[in-house]
Structure formats: structure tokens, C-alpha cells
Amino acid sequence: MIRVLVAEDQSAVRAGLVLILGSAPDIEVVGEAADGERAVELARRLRPDLVLMDVQMPRLDGVSATRIVVGEQLADVLVLTTFDLDEYVFGALRAGAAGFLLKNTEAKDLIAAVRTVAGGEGIVAPAVTRRLIAEFAAKPVREPAADPAVLRDLTRREREVLSCLGEGLSNAAIAERLEMAEATVKTHVSRLLGKLGLRSRVQAAVLAQELGI
């Protein structure tokens, strides 16, 4: 079972999300939160596999809550937003969110996205995510620009995988392009994230964009 915590401040929207997720035989909603502080509290106590996190919430916003949940390795985070290029999404991705969904996502796509992230894939809706990553990478940030030196510990194959992540490709698509097994791609992704000190493949994709790989 995929254990999910739903964090959404609008009760009607939250109830709808819970209803949709509860209809899937392999998904269990283990908790609900109406604000960011409660989301973090429940994530620490319940240790879900995934937190479905609204980015705009009272007490503690979804970006800050995402940073805590991911930083403490409590769960993967899939952020919810009203607009596909909402400013909050950029912050959530930098905070380590595994991906994002629009609130008007179809029920079947919501369930599929939860399964995708829970399976370690991390990037939801590749076509939209590619656009998001490119837009995000083009925005000025307060942090120093990425240093190409961070890549020196990567193998040639890991650099190729990183480049594919920068294009928003799924593990299956990377496996096909680089002619390797999908399981091998997952191993390379895991290793390069560790070497680069990143928490999600989306962060790796953004880094690839920033470095022009």
C-alpha cells in the first residue's frame, strides 16, 4: 500500500482528494492536514510514503513545509498548485519536492501521479515539467549560480543520465535513449543524487538546466 498524507487548507478540496485517493486499491490516506505545521507534525508521526502538499496554506506555507519534510527525509512530496507556473512551485521544487500537480487534475491522473512518485520516478507530466524546469532555470535566484565543478565526481554515464533528467525524461525514456535497463537508470539516478547532494530528481533536472548540460 502507498500511504499518503493529504495537506490542503480548503476542506472541500481536501475531501475530494481523499475520496479520489481512497478509491484506489493500492493507496491509503493515513492523515489529513489543513495547514503546513500540521502537515509536518503528521509527517513526523505517521511517516507516510508521500505527502500531497498544497503550496498555499496558513500557519506554515507548503514550500516551507516541503523543505522540512524532505530535509528530514520523512516522505516524498508532491505539490498541488492552481497554476502550472505558479511562483510557489519554483520554491517547492528547490525545496526538494518530487513533482507537482494542478488542482484540476483528473482523478485517474492524480492516482497515477501518486503511484509514479511513490515508485521513485519523481517527475510527473514530463511535457509540463520540462516547461516548468526551463522556466525555473531561467529565473534569477538569490543563491550563487551552480558551479560546474560539482560534476567532476560524476561518471560519463551519470552525466548522460543527468542531461536526460534536464530534459524531463522519465526513467523508461532515459533507458530507451541510452540503451540500458530501466533498473540501471534508477541506480544511476540514485548515485548521482547522492554525489550532488540533491534530494530529488527534479532538483537534478534544474541543475542540469542551470549548467546547460
Write the topology of this structure.
Layout: E1 2-7, H1 11-22, E2 27-33, H2 36-46, E3 50-54, H3 62-71, E4 76-81, H4 87-94, E5 99-102, H5 107-118, H6 126-138, H7 156-166, H8 171-178, H9 182-196, H10 201-211
Parallel strand pairs: 1-2, 1-3, 3-4, 4-5
Pfam family, one: Response_reg
Protein name: Response regulator
Keywords: DNA-binding, Phosphoprotein, Transcription, Transcription regulation
Please give a structural write-up.
With about 210 residues, this protein is an alpha/beta fold. About 50% of the residues lie in helices and about 15% in strands. Strands 2-1-3-4-5 form a five-stranded parallel β-sheet, with helices on both faces. Helix 3 (about 60-70) packs parallel to helix 4 (about 85-95) and helix 8 packs across helix 9 (about 180-195). It is globular. The mean pLDDT is about 85.
Entry summary:
Helix content is 52%, strand content 13%. The chain has 213 residues and is of the alpha/beta class. Helix 7 (156-166) packs across helix 10 and helix 8 packs across helix 9 (182-196).
